[in-house]
């Protein structure tokens, strides 16, 4: 039998994680290069490029550099062209992330009972999960679920879906070993977004935030053959909608891909909902947290880094510091916002030794972690996890060289990089000196967005 849960717990364990970023990075200069090459210098373009320099992101991970032929044609690529690259370049990333998770879980592909996947940057049939399962050699009788329309909250939505499937198998007395995969290829939409900025004179900041990534976890119930001790135990989750916000955050279909919808109301909505979402999560847990956990600041946090204003808003709403969200800041600064794949990457990053050295006031890592992400709707996904500190202190892999958009080498990795919080992260979180975040907030006061 697998390891039993403590009394009152659900018996759900994350026993393997994997993250795979692609081998290129894009800096703020990369977007400026596209703008100068293809578009006239207009007030809207100037405003977006100004925001681009102050997002707090040092590099965004990408499947190609700024010379990639897909985004250097006379017009923006079509959905068909985008999908072809999503499959050719994205699926291998997902396969790599999944293999990392399977290896850590000590599972053969044949032992996976279910697969729950998510993306918002492809909508073809069969879904990308079919090709990932095929390339991994998963069972032909594998039960698959592909979530669409959940955007940046997709990683936690997929984990929540996998958890309910696990519980269903537990009720039937069956083992469940569920592979959760999130894959996003966003940087190929650069020309489509810049087209809208140029033609409609809209201030669209998504083009300066999004990046490419695949992440995976393996979720197990407490039945069947022995499994490794958990990396995280999943203790509970909550899902809710902020009413009347459907037009504030989204990803609209278009002949040249998808168009990011992000209105200036989003940071205020997310900041306002965090405290009640936290309280709702705590009261929903089957077992109350230990008495040492009485406020949000007592936990470590894995918050989806949707943008600088999301992170700094969480600090204000929950009385947190950048160190509480150290893996979120790190991921945002080094890789950007990879939509649904980001939150699973943040959870993977959080457990590494260099992150454990960056805790608030040097208190050390906490075993209770709250994960949170926002998606279209606006949807709020939260989850409570217990981190197994006995499996802590993962050494970060050595640096590898990847290509950057300016032709120089840049430090890259397969999911983790060995450095402390970037100075950009410290600036974004510094009280009274929030740097780029403050600039972006001011720039977004009256933008013209869908």
TrEMBL record:
Residues 240-386 form the Chalcone/stilbene synthase C-terminal domain. Residues 393-450 are annotated as: Disordered. GO terms for biological process: polyketide biosynthetic process. Residues 67-219 form the Chalcone/stilbene synthase N-terminal domain. Keywords: Acyltransferase, Transferase. GO terms for molecular function: acyltransferase activity, transferring groups other than amino-acyl groups. Signal peptide: none annotated. InterPro entries: Chalcone/stilbene_synt_C (IPR012328), Chalcone/stilbene_synt_N (IPR001099), Polyketide_synthase_type-III (IPR011141), Thiolase-like (IPR016039). Pfam families: Chal_sti_synt_C, Chal_sti_synt_N. Belongs to the thiolase-like superfamily. Chalcone/stilbene synthases family. This is Thiolase-like protein.
